[in-house]
Amino acid sequence: MTRHRTAGVVAIAALFLPGLAACGRIGSRAPGREVVTPLLQKEANDLKASNERLDPVLGVKATWTIKGIDVTERPNDRDRPWAGTIRFRIRSETKDMDRGPIIDEFDKQFDYVYSTALEKWIFQLPPSPAPSPAQ
């Protein structure tokens, strides 16, 4: 009789453990830096590639240089345990028939958090400026 009870307990546990893990009660360990850093590097490479593909009709050539990728731990946030920043140096060149090429260079950064639920980096919008007081 004991053997049947044990088998029943094991069968019930097998049904409920995946559900508990999905709820974050069991097995909700955040991936390590060695896992999330290459994912952020891939995000940087994808951003670079998509933003350098401009329509030639526009007459603009853009070069996105990855200046750096920073990954920092957020120990008090189980759902978003990592923050990341991708820093670029962007150079755009526009052809002006009268003056020759017009070159503009500037730095831009993109902030992300790593979502354990989605298992990917999520872009973070910059905070909105505070409204100015009415005069």
Provide a short characterization of the protein structure.
By secondary structure, the protein is α+β, with helices and mostly antiparallel strands. Helix content is 30%, strand content 37%.
Measure the end-to-end span.
82 Å
The radius of gyration computed from the alpha-carbon positions, rounded to a whole number of angstroms, is: 24 Å
Low-confidence stretches: 6-27
Any idea what the shape is? extended
List the total number of helices: 2
Count of strand segments = 4
Total separate domains: 2
Task: Give the strand line-up of the largest sheet.
Answer: 1-2-3-4
Secondary-structure element pattern, one letter each: HHEEEE
Percentage of residues assigned to helices: 25-40%
The structural class is alpha+beta
Sketch the major β-sheet.
Answer: 4 strands, antiparallel
Strand content: 35-45%
